[in-house]
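Sanity check

After download, print the first record. It should look like this:
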Amino acid sequence: MKKFLAPILIGAGVASCALADESLQAQLEEMKKQIAELKAAQEKINVEALQRQIREVKAHTAGDNVKFNIDFRTGYDIVDYKLKGGEDVDNSIWTNKLILGMAAQPRDDLVFRGSLGVYKSFGNTSSFGANGYQNMDWYATQTPGDSTLRLREAYFLYFGKIGDVDYTASFGRRPSVDGFLVNLREDNADPASPIGHNINMEFDGASFMFNVEKITSVSGMYFKLCLGRGNSDAEAKYPTFTGFPVMIDGVTPSYAQTPYVKSDFDSPNMDMAGILAQLYDDGQFKVMANYFQGWNMMGANFSYANGSDASEGYSVNMTDVGDLSGGAVSLQVSGLSYESDFLMDTTVFASFAWSETDPQGKHNVIVDPSTGTIGSTTEMLGSSESKTGTSYYVGVQIPGFFESDKIGFEYNHGSKYWRSFTYGEDTLVGSKLAARGDAYEVYYNLPILSKNLTAQLRYTYIDYEYTGSDMFFGSTGMPMKVDDVAAMGYPVVDKASDLRLVLRYRY
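Expected structure tokens:
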């Protein structure tokens, strides 16, 4: 029986193997067919076109839109003025400051940046409406006023290349507030374009920057040509007086409506040109310098109805008083030593600046069609001669008590004829950097929720030696000894202080 079973089992095994081979072969053929179909389908795909579509989608999502950011601050200031003679004048003010930033980059070589700002006191302050200088264009978003949303920045940057020199060209409302050195006390990581020691105000213009690091082999070196206009000589849409008399019915004199022609009053175009240079920057040592020339500086001069006789009435008019030039050289050291965490996180700086006046040196006549001829002097800072002023500015910022908090100390001194463009400095008692005298400041910057919510406690103290600090360029900016003015019986500010607490939200 066993003899018969063995051949049967062997035969069944062989048959099973044959059937398995046939099944496996069928599966292999089916797999080959599917692979061939997949290969044919893949060959039909245009990989280059697909990659191009992906790039377009990425470009649309990343650059072809406007991105916004928010900088909002609620502040509480206690301002105090000590008049020479002992009188004390003070107040406490709550403010809200909002900066709405925006940016877009539709191409690799073109960027738009802008910001809108509103800076207001709580509620309303009636005196702001009666003050014509309160919301002047030079500092409109840097001074507490009403709730009007104003243009702070709006400009484009075009990036190009000439050989080994990268350059940018830019036009618009400039990023000219909170510049180099000033950005430390303002707790801004990136400074704006100018050196904050002598230029810190809003203006419109253009800039052309040339990066010469590659051709000079000097780390970080660039030069920037800056052009700006602080005042445009033009009548309004419906001017009151144009100086072009016409007759109505052959009898009644009137004036032709000719908007945007040159004004009859002496308020010409106020222009500025300058060179900003980053002479060196290796991440630790940074040296910057600027030189500027300004034309047709405006001064609020006294104008008399009859020559120089004030008894028949007078007014204060903005008029061209002359030109102004100046410059600054500034050094910042970020990290004094790598052997200590404290010294590594310490920043020190020093800056020297100067200004020089070039008065018109003539008697100017303003023709007012409503009242006749008005005489006005055009002395600059109270003198018909050229005057030079100087200022030095030093500071240190050290680590605080926690991980990222900072403590800062600053000091600056201005001479008798020192004159700066720092109208946009955010200090309610006036620009400390414009002071003709001594200014001291201490501040503490504390991150509460990382960089999104921070706090600052700051105290600014100014001891004036001469009057006219932070004023215009005419007779109101004339420097006089504080003691001499008090001796004549006039009230004069001797010292000013601002104790400030700010909560700041950024996103």
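If your output differs, re-run the checksum step. Summary of this record's structure: Residues 265 and 366 are 6 Å apart (CA to CA).
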